[in-house]
Amino acid sequence: MTRNVVISGGGTGLGLAAARTFAAGGDRVLLLGRRREVLEEAAVPGARVYAADLTEPEEVRGVRKFVDAELGGRVDVLIHSAGGNGVLEPPAASDDPLDAVAHDWTVNFRINTLTAALLTEGLREQLASPGGRVLFLSSIAAYRGSNLSAYAAAKAALHPYAHELARVLGPRGITVNLVAPGFIEETGFFGGPPPEDRKAMWVAETSTGRAGTLADIAETLHWLASPAAGHITSQVIQVNGGAERGR
């Protein structure tokens, strides 16, 4: 049976890589994001697109209506890839240091945490039962901290939410898991190539001696959404070459 796969942040980076992997496996993919032109340029075969700001409840209601109309009201796999580095969002209007802190933390929680919570709750009743899958993109920063502390905290906040969802949705035959990537060289997380010395440091922290790839994450998500992973839930899967353990 063709599955319906909904991916937030599906026009770029990890979300796009996941979309291409699921589409290649014969699934029907819906790409969500704020910029319709980016979603349309993603060129995922057979994908539907819907532009929405997932921090706004009314726009999430629009997603739900679209799912009802275009996907028969069924979501087999829900992947939360929206978010990222809040530093790349528009800056605070004020130069006051406290205003900057408030802006940084608010932005990071809105784009990384609130988007995931609103979309999950908005589509909760549409999740396939049994067999549904909910997958969150966390980060190694949720474990190790980061100089981007607001981002790290926003990703860490997804963990208790996912664990509670796993308990609540488990009786419906729905699993809930998180994937925590480490350094992935091919994303736009940094707004450009990271400094070579930083890249070398991150690679040196791994046990595998390399940066992660988009395929590493996409294939992990694909497996967690498969029947083979049907008894895995409430887990955080570390995909960082052992870097979370350090050297």
How does this model look, in words?
Keywords: Oxidoreductase. Belongs to the short-chain dehydrogenases/reductases (SDR) family. GO terms for molecular function: oxidoreductase activity. Helix content is 41%, strand content 15%. It has 247 residues and is α/β, with parallel strands linked by helices. It has a 7-stranded parallel sheet with strand order 3-2-1-4-5-6-7, with helices on both faces. Strand 2, helix 2 and strand 3 form a beta-alpha-beta unit. The model has no long low-confidence stretch (mean pLDDT 92).
Which labels suit this protein?
seven-stranded parallel β-sheet; 9 helices; 247 residues; alpha/beta; 7 strands; single chain; Rossmann fold
SSE layout:
Layout: E1 4-8, H1 13-24, E2 28-33, H2 36-41, E3 48-51, H3 57-70, E4 77-80, H4 97-122, E5 133-137, H5 141-144, H6 149-156, H7 158-169, E6 175-181, H8 196-204, H9 214-224, E7 235-239
Parallel strand pairs: 1-2, 1-4, 2-3, 4-5, 5-6, 6-7
Helix pairs in contact: 1-9, 4-6
**Strands, total number:** 7
Largest sheet: 7 strands, parallel
Which class do the helix and strand fractions yield? alpha/beta
Radius of gyration: 17 Å
Report mean pLDDT, rounded to a whole number. 92
Distance between the termini: 45 Å
| Biggest sheet strand line-up | 3-2-1-4-5-6-7
CATH fold label: Rossmann fold
Number of helices: 9
Q: Class in CATH?
A: Alpha Beta
The helix content, as a percent range, equals 40-55%
Please mark out the parts with pLDDT under 50 across 5 or more consecutive residues, or reply none.
none
- Beta-sheet strand percentage? 5-15%
Family: Belongs to the short-chain dehydrogenases/reductases (SDR) family.
Protein name: SDR family NAD(P)-dependent oxidoreductase
InterPro entries: KR_dom, NAD(P)-bd_dom_sf, Sc_DH/Rdtase_CS, SDR_fam
Keywords: Oxidoreductase
